[in-house]
Amino acid sequence: MGYFKLKKVQDLVWEIEGSTNSEKQTPKYLLNSQIDKEKELDMVLGRIDFSHHKNFIVFGMKNIKLLSEIYKRKTIVSTMVIIEICKETEENLFVECDEKDLAFLFDRKRVNLTIGSQDELVAQLSIVLGDMLKLYNLRNTEIISMPYMKSMYPNEMQGLTKIIFERLHTFVSSYGNSVEDILLGMDNYLDNWRHIFRSIDYIHFKDMYKDKPAIIVGAGPSLDKNIQQLKRAKGKALILCVDAALNSLLNVGIVPDLVASIERLELTSKFYNREDIPDEIVFVGPNVVKDFTLNKFERIIFTGRAGDALIRDFGSYIGFNNLDIGGNVSNVLIAFTEHLGCNPITFIGLDLAYTGGRTHTAGVSEALGKENMIGYKDKENIVYVKGQNGEMLETLEFFMYAKNWIEMNMVRNSQNLFINATEGGAMIEGALNQKLAEVIEKYCLEDLTPFSDLYDKIKEDIAIDKLGTTQKALDYIKEVDKYLRRISKKAFQYLNKIRTHKGVGLVNLMEKQRGEMQAALDKNSAGRFILQSIIISYNRDIHSFPMYLSKEDEKKMLGKSIDFYDTIKKVCDRVSEDFKAYKLILDRYLEICQKEEETI
């Protein structure tokens, strides 16, 4: 029995240091259970079903022996997230245990140790919850609480449990794009090919507005309260708006510096369906929006999309960079203002919830038409979030995901001041609530260089090799197409093997094939991303089966595996047909670029 020191590593994540504390006196901050450890061990272990692959979320780490036993008994692909609420994380922390019981804490792939105040734990959990193994085990996530945690921190545990499940579902949604959605983005990218050569990569704007104020304008119903006040900030703060808020601003004479879109769908083009969009507005966003939208702007900044592996890797291959822009248009603007170096960053109209029964400012329904409005209460996926006054508000899942992304992003960029001047809607944890008038009075004091002027100056020094870029794009499309054909062939082989298998060993064969297919899929991240929703769904199904299968379970697993390989083959073959069209588009552009070079 000895004392072992804990240390912080990797941006807030904790681990055991590995050497015993040689001091004979008891350390000042010792995490050690004061109740009968053996009794606690029997009481907790007796309630746990270890026959399934699970995510074990364990509140409390004062009984290391208990944690060690959970680790020993869990399946090999089950994970553990250990949470200890502690207000004194700046001091040396120790645990008391036998050295042999510490081995599990060095399994960093499957065990995460988080320690701190509630706010610190939220930050740590945002880091450790997003790996693929936890997504596969999501259906069997189990909360385990040591008795002392229940009695000492009931409110904190309740809040953290809610955040854990919100974060897990947010990560699932970020991987859940359908094949159709992914290919629609790629369709638009190639339809927009000519716009690449007149755009600027976002990377060129790094810290161009260092420590200058920015105001991000959402299209929530509370925008109506602040829209007149916003006029005072024009020219003294960078004003960036989401596509749905553009008409509301222009209708009252406010010309934003930038506007963003993120959606691939035709519907969002309706926000730009007016003839008087001022020339000085700069478009910013990923190159997956409709061509109609980009045609409305003289100045374009492409952000790429770090979370979409196909767009990300394709862009990287042809020489463009990728920004982590989340999944919501407001997320795009937040990420870009951070890249610009803006500080503080203020939100208005970012309700992200039903405020007075509405999700958007009046201008949105005027632009889209009521029949196209998203967010009415008769839609599915209603969830509840805390409002700014502590009340619980109805919202939609995708608004909750946007809120979660903003909160996780603020943790990663804690050096910035984020101000929520929305005056309604969801509480954004980590942002300072302040009225827009106060923000303008305090921070919007100096005239700023117009963003369009800065854009034009940067554009003068940028030249894109049209022929070389197009050839690289064609090479990349051919490479991904080869990968898809290889995966299709392998899926067909595996499908035949399990269909024709006789005798014992079927489960072992399916697990062997699953591992081999995973290795083959991982050889091309963009190709794998196209198939991501199918892969995650299959692995979550397989991880839902118990460790020891009945004959009925084995039959069900066979059915899941047959469906998986059959679907993978069909999708790969269909996507290859789409890639033929991509190659034709790029071949045509190659001819155009070659003719242009010949005339120079």
Automatic annotation (TrEMBL):
<protein>
    <recommendedName>
        <fullName>6-hydroxymethylpterin diphosphokinase MptE-like domain-containing protein</fullName>
    </recommendedName>
</protein>
<dbReference type="InterPro" id="IPR002826">
    <property type="entry name" value="MptE-like"/>
</dbReference>
<feature type="domain" description="6-hydroxymethylpterin diphosphokinase MptE-like">
    <location>
        <begin position="188"/>
        <end position="356"/>
    </location>
</feature>
<dbReference type="Pfam" id="PF01973">
    <property type="entry name" value="MptE-like"/>
</dbReference>
